[in-house]
Design a protein that fits this description.
This protein is mainly α. It is built from four helices and two strands. The chain has helices at about 5-15, 30-40, 65-70, 80-85, and strands spanning about 25, 45-50. A two-stranded parallel ribbon has the order 1-2. The longest helix has 13 residues, at about 5-15. The protein starts with a helix and ends with a helix.
């Protein structure tokens, strides 16, 4: 990486308040979906998103099989899926 960028990040880190999260996720539709589910379950969640977090109108890039795997892991419930997949 660029040494000047790293230097700037280190200086900002030194003068910033430490952050404490249970989980950090990359954004995108699926990342935001999972982050919301985890936050609703009481987890402190940080989402790293490339742009502004706005409403999303796009096709889902996840199959029902993949969603059900998240249910098996306890990240989502069937009710969560039913509420958002109409």
């Amino acid at each position: 990486g660029n040494p000047k960028c790293w230097e700037k990040l280190r200086k900002q880190a030194e003068s910033s308040t430490p952050l404490d999260y249970d989980v950090v996720l990359c954004g995108g539709t699926l990342g935001i979906f999972i982050a919301t589910a985890l936050q609703l379950r009481g987890h402190a969640v940080c989402v790293i998103e490339a742009g502004k977090l706005l409403g999303r109108e796009q096709e889902w890039n996840i199959s029902m099989k993949e969603l059900l795997e998240l249910v098996e892991l306890g990240v989502l419930t069937n009710a969560d899926i039913d509420d958002v997949v109409k």
